[in-house]
Amino acid sequence: MASEVAQQSTGSVFAAPAHPAVPAGWAGRLRPLLIKLLPVAAAAAALGVQLAVPNQQTFAVNEQYATLLKVVLALNVLFCALSLVSGRLGPWLKDNAPLAAAGLALLTVWDLITLKFGLLPLPYFPGPDKVLAALTEDWKLIFTSAFYSLRLLVTGYLFGALAGLITGTLMGWSRRWHYWVSPVMKGIGPIPATAWIPLAMVIFPTSFQASASLVALAVWFPVTVMTGSGIANVRNAFFEVARTLGAGERFLIFRVAIPAAFPTIFVGLFMGLGASFLVLIVAEMIGVKAGLGWYISWVQGWAEYSKVYACLFVISLIFSGVIGLLFKIRDRVLVWQKGLIKW
What we know:
Layout: H1 2-14, H2 26-36, H3 38-52, H4 63-83, H5 89-116, H6 128-137, H7 139-173, H8 175-188, H9 197-203, H10 207-232, H11 236-244, H12 249-260, H13 262-286, H14 292-301, H15 305-333
């Protein structure tokens, strides 16, 4: 009897009291709507600043920027209205609305400290209206330069990645190859690829071949290191099972070692891609007479910094797209690691 009383008293002390569910109030219902309206408010503020605040910079104002802000405002209002009736658009807009509003707020701050208040001097710090005018004025030359840069990037990257995969596979699989190739890697690998520009311009007959070789060299080193490390660290149990089933050396390399090392190989491909961007722009600035790096150097010589910013915007879009494509391929190849590394 005493134990029952003790159990009842213990239960009364430690048991959590049941509370009825509290219905969501107006604040909880309005919060998602207010979040969705953030880009609308930010776009309206940016448009208001552009139209109402007087200009301090002396150059002519590009009216295309105000038109662009009106279009952005209209699109944000449309998306907000559609999100009220669409089950898919609503959650997506709720997740991305703060980021879009922050981007528009930064655009407004940029407009204020340049065009409106003149806190930063021309021509080095133009306003967003001048950058947009430069992009629309010189878009043919910019996108032609982007084509040449992509051609150079793809050529150098593919050759460098292929050479890195071959060298890394040989180093990771064979001790003899590792013995002879490792000192070369330690001697050449740490040297920045851009330091080879004077020699590349002498060795190769054209500037395109010289620049492509520099991009390939920048990609080759990290791909070789990560491929060799990945293959060398594959579990021996994988090879033992394959040998038990009668697999030969070629099967072990191409069907066991390389697929098992794919996660590490893609890390090397990503590192090589980042290095190739740097080498590409530097090589184009120095030796190649086409491409985005050449365009930046050319317009900088004429002090047209609005075109420099426009080209940087295009570079950001292109290089982000290339990295996103690499991650899409990675998610297709490594299905079991999809979403583990995001871009």
